[in-house]
Amino acid sequence: MNRLSIIPKSGLSYRLSRSLVWRAPCLARLGLLSPHIRSGLGLTGAARHSSTKKHPEPEDEDKYVYFGDRRVDRELKRKLIDNVFTSVSSKYDLMNDLMSLGLHRCWKDVFVDNIISPESFLRIKRGDSDNFSDVTILDVAGGTGDISFRIVDKLRRDNMEVFPRIMVIDSNSEMIQQGQLRSLKKGDSNIIWIKDDGEKLEQIPSNSVDVVAISFGIRNFADIEKGLRTFYRVLKPGGRFLCLEFSKVNNPLISSIYQLYSSIVIPNLGELVVGDKESYDYLVESIRRFPDAEGFAQLLIDANFTEVKSSTMTFGVVAIHSGFKPTETSD
């Protein structure tokens, strides 16, 4: 991983994250500091294992998915997820800082470095790989725009005069509104906001996007495989898919601490700050059920992505996954 940078904030979230070490040593500290957390849309995994609901008959299996530890049909999960993010939208960014003690900032900065690295664009035929004017980046389940704002801020720090076309896609109106308010406060007009279902991307043409990025959002999909096929569809040949998501802690001691923090601290923090413990119970359970890095990489391969790779941070708390759409494809 390359350098990390943490963008300071004022107030409580700044004080919580100030003790962290910035830049290169940050990764090492991340491992020692904290296997707790969550970011983006999620929290940290290890919750209950049992369910009182009767499992569906085998022939109906494809209709049902988990919402936390409950088995529900896919359409109901989509509605329940929408309710979760409507409930937490106003305190979403604050809760990310509190739950992760600011570590989500480090993870996202590494993720952004990957998104705008030359590797993301070299396979797409164009004249000048350093010219972002004809580049389109799709920030799926982008919510309040945290990743997109970081991309813009990073390019400004690098004195870029031409910016890519950045589109935030989210299915939740409240989350988009929070992002648009944030954009107005920053005076930033470089981001396009679109309400659309990330699993379908009905408003995005096929073979039109250079990079599809999703941060802490794909585990909330009712049909992850369908979402990956959609990402493959909208990418240009040679385009890159990048995903930042929670994974599985690979140290037994750290895993025990992480699970304790996740199952007890995070839901109660959600109740204290947001007044909604149930939504954060779901987010914790969604992380516990999400595949490890190897398992998710296999889903990318099954969706026809090539050059698939995954790299973990903080003892495996999170992972960055990457894959490319082949430059020559019949899709």
UniProtKB/TrEMBL annotation:
It is found in: Mitochondrion inner membrane. Component of a multi-subunit COQ enzyme complex. GO terms for biological process: methylation. Methyltransferase required for the conversion of 2-polyprenyl-6-methoxy-1,4-benzoquinol (DDMQH2) to 2-polyprenyl-3-methyl-6-methoxy-1,4-benzoquinol (DMQH2). This is 2-methoxy-6-polyprenyl-1,4-benzoquinol methylase, mitochondrial. GO terms for cellular component: extrinsic component of mitochondrial inner membrane. PANTHER family: 2-METHOXY-6-POLYPRENYL-1,4-BENZOQUINOL METHYLASE, MITOCHONDRIAL, METHYLTRANSFERASE. Keywords: Membrane, Methyltransferase, Mitochondrion, Mitochondrion inner membrane, S-adenosyl-L-methionine, Transferase, Ubiquinone biosynthesis. The keyword Cell membrane does not apply. It comes from the Eukaryota. One of its GO terms (molecular function) is 2-methoxy-6-polyprenyl-1,4-benzoquinol methyltransferase activity. Belongs to the class I-like SAM-binding methyltransferase superfamily. MenG/UbiE family. Its EC number is 2.1.1.201. Its main location: mitochondrion. It is a peripheral membrane protein. InterPro entries: SAM-dependent_MTases_sf, UbiE/COQ5_MeTrFase, UbiE/COQ5_MeTrFase_CS.
